[in-house]
Specification:
This protein has 459 residues and is an alpha/beta fold. The protein is built from 14 helices and 22 strands. It has helices at 37-40, 64-67, 70-75, 86-117, 128-134, 222-238, 252-265, 279-290, 297-302, 318-323, 345-352, 371-376, 407-414, 431-443, and strands at residues 2-5, 17-20, 25-28, 56-58, 81-84, 138-140, 147-150, 153-159, 167-175, 178-184, 207-211, 242-246, 274-276, 312-314, 331-335, 359-362, 381-384, 387-390, 394-397, 423-427, 448-449, 455-458. The strands form four sheets. A seven-stranded mixed sheet has the order 6-5-4-3-2-1-22. A hairpin with a 2-residue loop joins strand 17 and strand 18 (387-390).
Length: 459
């Protein structure tokens, strides 16, 4: 059996793993590369495999760095099944189309630059129509249900606790009358956070592909994060400013809304507007409401609707978003994209970064080369949308809103194995984070390996 690391190897994004046996070729994830230009260029190159020869795609969850190249896969001739949980399928139905729209806008902007330089124009990777064409290939499967996908391969989904519907994949491979088990962690979540359940502990495996996004860092504990959020709100409102929160549309936004609702119910939250300025996040929130059975016990018991409160304002239309530029009262604006690489948050940064009254609050991972990373690392001036913008707004970060496990959470998950797997392949992390996690795992007696991009191994 051969395992190929077609993405998310020594980088966080582009999740895609190819499993090949004598009888089968299947993928786990088919994600988009996100980050700086050198990384995003990888999206435009050929796949490491022939899409026509892949029989199944097992999808861990809906985030674009795990699902975003599915339309390209289908355009390339894939005719098999895409198997995921029901929330993942529903979220992909809106996220892939939104991704196509964002790419079109980015391509139009890029082609204006290319025209001025006399360069060849670029085609978008896929269109909204291409995204729609993928949907008939999806098949919904619940957690805990064994699925035989080929003569020699079957798998089971377990809850990864990362976002609603996110999965750990336990893949069973039969070769020479023996069964080997490969576990793909997907993206693991934190323990004891609202809405989603804790990651499922897996008792046994021969080989494990384990994420390392925060393999070198610790989050603040969940009990503190609402207090830290309230602190940033009060600091900004005391200056009569705007709190700008770049946020991923799925899970991060819903956890923020949940936190604001909780603070309001406790009488701690200033009575000012919270603008959700993201059509995708608004649609995603409605999907969350339809999948209550995937909530954790706390969210089910505490609220009938955990994402709605009196001062929340949805901004679906572009004109509603533009009006926020002239809004003079203190407020909170939640907008995508989470790494500031696109979306409406860029307009708010353009109009708000120069103002010392404002605060930019990061609540999620910022990949190398992204605008969010530059701002977070203390850039005094940034270039965006064809202009230089001075950074005078306050910049803050709350790590514990991340949907990713930190290294203590990852080690806690690893401790769930009753017998040590033969080897851990460390993926989904920048090299520094991957090496840090490797050191920690080796201290526990685990054999580890950090694969390179497009590397293949026989197992």
């Amino acid at each position: 059996m051969k395992l190929s690391f077609c993405g998310a190897a020594k980088i966080v994004t582009g999740s895609c793993f190819l499993v090949e046996t004598q009888k089968s070729k299947v993928l786990v994830d088919c994600g988009m590369f996100q980050g700086g230009k050198d990384i995003t260029k990888l999206n435009y190159g050929p796949f490491f495999f022939d899409p026509r020869k892949i029989s199944h795609l097992i999808l861990t969850h809906a985030h674009i760095d795990h699902s975003g190249l599915i339309p390209k896969l289908v355009k390339g001739g894939f005719k098999g099944e895409i198997i995921a949980t029901s929330p993942t399928v529903d979220l992909c139905g809106i996220m892939l189309k939104d991704c196509a729209h964002v790419m079109l806008q980015d391509t139009l902007h890029e082609n204006r630059r290319r025209q001025r330089l006399g360069l060849a124009l670029r085609e978008p990777l896929y269109s909204e129509e291409d995204a729609d064409k993928c949907l008939p290939f999806f098949r919904k499967v619940d957690y805990g249900i064994p699925v035989q996908i080929t003569e020699d391969l079957k798998f089971v989904f377990s809850d990864a606790g990362h976002i609603i519907g996110s999965s750990i994949v336990e893949l069973f491979v039969e070769e020479r009358n023996k069964v080997k088990k490969i576990v793909f962690s997907g993206d693991l979540g934190q323990w004891d956070v609202p809405i989603v359940n804790n990651p499922t502990l897996i008792e046994g495996a021969d080989f494990v592909l384990i994420e390392s996004t925060y393999g070198d860092r610790l989050h603040e504990r969940h009990g503190l994060r609402d207090d830290l959020l309230l602190e940033q709100v009060k600091k900004t409102f005391d200056k009569k400013g705007k709190l700008l929160i770049p946020s991923f549309a799925v899970e991060r936004t819903q956890e923020l809304l949940y936190a604001f609702k909780s603070l309001i119910d406790q009488g701690k939250f200033p009575y000012e507007k919270v603008f959700l300025d993201s059509p995708l996040a608004i649609k995603a929130t409605e999907i969350f409401k339809r999948h209550r059975k995937f909530f954790d016990e706390e969210a089910l018991k505490k609220y009938k609707d955990p994402f709605t409160f009196p001062t929340l304002v949805y901004c679906s239309k572009t004109e509603d978003s533009v009006k926020l530029n002239d809004y003079e009262k203190p407020c909170i604006i939640i907008a995508g994209s989470g790494m500031c690489t696109g979306g409406r948050i860029r307009q708010h940064l353009k109009h708000g970064l120069w103002n010392p009254k404002n605060t930019v609050l990061f609540v999620g991972f910022q990949a190398e080369g992204t605008l969010g990373r530059y701002i977070l690392e203390g850039a005094k001036k940034i270039k965006m949308m064809g202009m230089d913008i001075v950074v005078k707004a306050s910049v803050a970060k709350i790590n514990s809103f991340s949907a990713h496990a930190d290294y203590e959470d990852i080690l806690r998950w690893v401790d769930g194995f009753k017998v040590k797997p033969k080897k851990f392949f460390i993926v989904h992390g920048e090299e520094k984070a991957a090496k840090s996690l490797k050191n920690r795992l080796e201290k526990k007696g685990c054999e580890c390996y950090i694969p390179g991009l497009r590397e293949s191994v026989q197992i």
